Amino acid sequence: MIDATVKLTSESTLAQGKYVSEPKKEKELAKDYEARTWRHKMHYDEDGKVFIPNFALKNCLSEAAKFLSIQIPGKGKSTYTKHFEAGIVVMENMFIGVNKDDVACQIMFVPSDGVRGSNKRVEKYFPVIPKWQGTAVFSILDETITEDVFFTHLEQAGKFIGLGSFRPRNNGYFGRFKPEMISLG
After folding, report:
1. Does an H or E element contain 155, and which?
2. Is 154 exposed, middle or buried (0-12, 13-18, 19+ CB in 10 A)?
3. Which CA distances in Å does 99 have to 12, 29, 39, 94, 96?
4. pTM of whole model > 0.85?
5. How far is CA 101 from CA 22, 151, 184, in A?
6. Domains observed in the chain
7. Cα–Cα distance between 165 and 153 in angstroms, integer?
8. Which among 67, 71, 66 has a CA at the least distance from the CA of 81?
9. Which neighbouring-strand residues pair with 105?
């Protein structure tokens, strides 16, 4: 097992859209509910420190492997996809140096049913963070994934997959990042 400690720095705004389980108040309008609960869409700890969940980091890298479909030299048509899906672990959330109370809100006109192109649209409120950075540790369990292969996939994940809501993989423009290797060992 190799631990890759990587610093991720924003290349675009980060928007978070965690599921909100806060119940509506009696006779509360949908717009009022959004205005009251938008901060609940962020991932943060008991001290209000905002983070990117470990599973989001892992899934971003796995999606990049699937997106790139790079073949493993000497293994025929086999790609790295299954090796990234099963052979990478991120154990800790990545804190991004922001407190939930300092985050701004952006109102967006989005499909109410979640279907892109739908004509049923409503205003939704999203927490947005223009500049962010953090350090994450990716444990590489599969020896098929070399340092170069890992870093290439992570670079491409930052460009084409992204993190959070409205990321490039979902036809968005938020959540892009640039990785910098800090240590490997």
Report:
1. helix 147-156
2. buried
3. 18, 28, 11, 13, 9
4. yes
5. 18, 34, 34
6. 2-184 (3.30.70)
7. 20
8. 66
9. 127
Mean pLDDT of 129-151: 97
Instruction: Let me know how long the chain is.
Output: 185
Q: Residue 118: which pLDDT band, with cuts at 50, 70 and 90?
A: confident
Distance CA 121, CA 112 (A): 5
What contacts 125, CB < 8 A, 6 or more positions away?
Answer: 34, 35, 38, 41, 105, 106, 107, 108
Q: 103-109 long-range contacts, Cβ below 8 Å, gap at least 24?
A: 103/39, 103/42, 103/50, 103/127, 103/128, 103/129, 104/128, 104/129, 104/130, 105/38, 106/15, 108/166
d(CA 117, CA 126): 19
| Residue 131, both tokens | 């500049």
**pLDDT tens by residue, 15-37:** 999 999 999 999 999 999 999 99
d(CA 151, CA 145): 10
Mean pLDDT taken over the chain: 96
Judge whether residue 114 has pLDDT over 80.
no
pLDDT at residue 140 tops 80: yes
Nearest Cα neighbor of 50 from 10, 6, 101 is: 101
Identify the residue whose tokens are 């927490």.
Answer: 127
